[in-house]
Amino acid sequence: MKITIDRIKKIRELTGYGIMDCRKALEEAAGDEKKAVELLNIWGIEKSAKKKDRETKAGLIQSYIHGEGKIGVLIELLCETDFVARTDDFKNLAHELCLQISSMNPKDIKELLKQEYIRDTGLTIGDMIKQTIGKLGENITVSRFVRMQLGEK
User: Fold this and answer.
1) Average pLDDT of the segment spanning 131-143
2) Per-residue pLDDT band at 72 (split at 50, 70, 90)
3) pTM for this one?
4) Where is each Translation elongation factor EFTs/EF1B dimerisation domain found (predicted)?
5) What is the chain's alpha carbon radius of gyration, rounded to the nearest angstrom?
6) Are residues 133 and 83 in the same domain?
7) Angle between helices 88-104 and 125-136 (to 10 degrees)
8) CATH number for the domain including 91?
9) Which of 85, 101, 120, 138 makes the best surface tag, with the fewest CB within 10 Å?
10) What is the spatial distance between Cα 19 and Cα 5, in angstroms, rounded to a whole number?
């Protein structure tokens, strides 16, 4: 099957990975778009392993209020540079982590990373972060979070 720029663009829009990565994935998947996306996710996790020892000093603090003010989450998500902290992918990851914490109430970061992602039970939060590391090319860590529920002590 021919690898066209439109097919590469489609995979890029679905995954957020670079053009050359999308082209390579389509070539290795013999044009199968679903398999190409799976390959990109696997490669992203593999890339994250190489970056896990890099220091994370930049990032952002994200907040989320749920249920008309009944539950609130505050998370500190770190990366290597301010440039990555300002990307939509990084901001979206912080938001999704807040949603996860709000709904699943993990007791600590270790438990959070092991949880199944609420939007895709075939993916853990740790793997979701690793995929984002693969896309953005920088180490990402959850530094801390707090979840508060109205009336909870």
Assistant:
1) 90
2) very high
3) 0.74
4) 72-150
5) 17
6) yes
7) 170
8) 3.30.479.20
9) 120
10) 9
